[in-house]
Design brief:
Blueprint: H1 15-29, H2 39-43, H3 47-56, H4 70-87, H5 97-101, H6 106-119, H7 145-152
InterPro entries: Calponin-like, Calponin_repeat, CH_dom, CH_dom_sf, SM22_calponin
GO molecular function: actin filament binding
GO cellular component, one term: actin cytoskeleton
Length: about 180
């Protein structure tokens, strides 16, 4: 990978998804986001992420650092991650601080933001905008005893059928010969 920084190789980045995330953040927060900066640099200090989370769940991050050094900004990212988990984003979908701060896996940051967008559908107090497809809801079915018994008599096609065919009379290739003493 000559000429490509190591941090860009972690995950497959999709610029169209990154743009979709930025547009969603703009709509939710009402912030103007500079298009001159790279995606990861816009999110890197964690302030945009904290503002986003506070719009989705007011007061979820009561205090975050608008300025400061590396550790203050990394603390913002950690607060955002914790707020995501409390909001309902599955832990396995939440990126690690180093994924964003050190640019190790920016694609995972996008994955987290899409997971956050999907989670908003589960919060009736949130009236939109949303990011990503609406998760499927449960579709429970109930069957009578009669319907269940009728289903036991049906042979599913996944079992296959041979309609009486056998392998008798078939021979493929030569028979096996065992040579002793060689």
């Amino acid at each position: 990978m000559a000429g490509k920084p190591r941090w860009q190789s972690a995950g497959k980045r999709e610029p169209e998804k990154e743009n979709e995330v930025l547009e969603w953040i703009k709509e939710v927060t009402g912030e103007t986001i500079s298009s001159d900066l790279p995606y990861e640099d816009i999110l890197r200090d964690g302030t945009v992420l904290c503002k986003l989370m506070n719009k989705l769940s007011p007061g979820s991050i009561p205090k975050f650092n608008q300025n400061g050094g590396q550790f203050k900004f990394m603390e913002n990212i950690s607060k955002f991650q914790e707020a995501c988990k409390i909001y309902g984003v599955p832990e396995q979908d939440v990126f690690q601080t180093s994924d964003l701060w050190e640019r190790k896996d920016v694609a995972m940051v996008t994955t987290t933001l899409f997971a956050l967008g999907r989670t908003t559908y589960k919060h009736p107090e949130w009236q939109g905008p949303w990011l990503g497809p609406k998760p499927a809801s449960q579709n429970r079915r109930t069957f009578t005893e009669e319907q269940l018994r009728a289903g036991e008599a049906v042979i599913g096609l996944q079992y296959g059928t041979n309609k009486g065919a056998t392998q008798s009379g078939q021979s493929f290739g030569a028979t096996r010969k065992i040579l002793l003493g060689k």
